[in-house]
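Good morning,

Attaching, inline, the backbone tokens for the sequence recovery test we're adding to the shared suite. The designed sequence is right after.
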């Protein structure tokens, strides 16, 4: 996540108007394990870094945070299992349910499901539990920060793309199992006469 934070306390102290608010807008970025922020409280930028574990465990919803990490680990495991069975199916003829097309569907469904759980849990932590605001105000005794803007960054969208790829893979496996009718073409009998041979 990245975002812009406003030092509300500093802006209120000097009664900052619209052009002066730029001096009080800082930045924040964080992920599942670490992050940092640039505090702008009117005296220039102050950079600080933090780690989620062990610094912020008491400030955050730790159970939800650990669940997100566990969901992603389980999704990676099932993705690797699915990849392994796909390679096995490419080498050998699939004959069992667990490593044939049905097994590939099962592993892809589980991997995609856990990625979807991780993505929705992270979105819930950000939007419902106000994760960015909690992180922005971590260890702040004097100043209070307000979130102006939040953006999901590349890692989040890679997880969304991963879930989409698993869904597309399921769709392709389902389509490959459909037996389409064979198209029969009419073969014309060729009549060769003596006149055709002459020319």
């Amino acid at each position: 996540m990245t975002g812009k934070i406003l030092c509300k306390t500093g802006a209120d102290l000097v009664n900052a108007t619209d052009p002066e608010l730029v001096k009080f807008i800082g930045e924040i970025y964080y992920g599942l394990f670490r992050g940092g922020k640039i505090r702008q409280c009117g005296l220039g930028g102050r950079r600080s870094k933090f780690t989620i574990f062990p610094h912020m465990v008491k400030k955050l919803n730790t159970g939800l945070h650990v669940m997100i990490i566990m969901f992603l680990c389980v999704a990676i495991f099932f993705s690797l299992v699915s990849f392994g069975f796909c390679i096995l199916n490419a080498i050998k003829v699939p004959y069992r349910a667990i490593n044939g097309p049905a097994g590939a569907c099962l592993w892809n469904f589980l991997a995609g499901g856990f990625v979807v759980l991780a993505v929705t849990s992270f979105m819930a932590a950000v939007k419902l539990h106000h994760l960015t605001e909690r992180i922005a105000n971590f260890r702040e005794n004097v100043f209070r920060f307000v979130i102006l803007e939040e953006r999901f960054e590349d890692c989040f969208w890679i997880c969304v793309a991963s879930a989409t790829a698993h869904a597309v893979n399921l769709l392709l496996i389902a389509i490959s199992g459909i037996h389409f009718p064979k198209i029969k073409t009419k073969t014309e009998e060729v009549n060769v006469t003596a006149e055709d041979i002459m020319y």
